[in-house]
Design a protein that fits this description.
The chain has helices at about 1-10, 15-25, 30-40, 45-65, 75-95. By secondary structure, the protein is an all-alpha fold.
Length: about 100
């Protein structure tokens, strides 16, 4: 779990993208957002969801940097919102968990 949180901390994107994601994450609802991004069915655990979201975001960022015409800014922000939201949930769960 710490590796995932380290990956989140190492994620550097343009300030405007991150700001939009943080604002959007205030209204993040896992049950509504994740199926749209990851596919319908049973929701994955937070760590698995974050890993899949990070893969999708990496692909979107590559399209952005390559100035690809198929790049969707809205989809990128939507994925970043989910990443921030899942990260907040994961961090809160880590704080609430008893020390081993």
């Amino acid at each position: 779990m710490q590796d995932i949180l380290s990956m989140l901390n190492a994620l550097h994107r343009p300030r405007l993208l991150i700001r939009a994601a943080r604002i959007g994450a205030e209204d993040y609802r896992r049950a509504a957002h994740l199926p749209r991004l990851l596919g319908y069915g049973q929701l994955p655990r937070h760590g698995n969801a974050l890993m899949r979201l990070m893969e999708i975001e990496g692909e979107l960022n590559a399209l952005r940097l390559g100035e690809d015409s198929s790049y969707s800014l809205l989809r990128h922000i939507d994925v970043l919102i989910a990443i921030v939201g899942e990260g907040r949930i994961l961090r809160a769960a880590q704080v609430d968990a008893p020390a081993a």
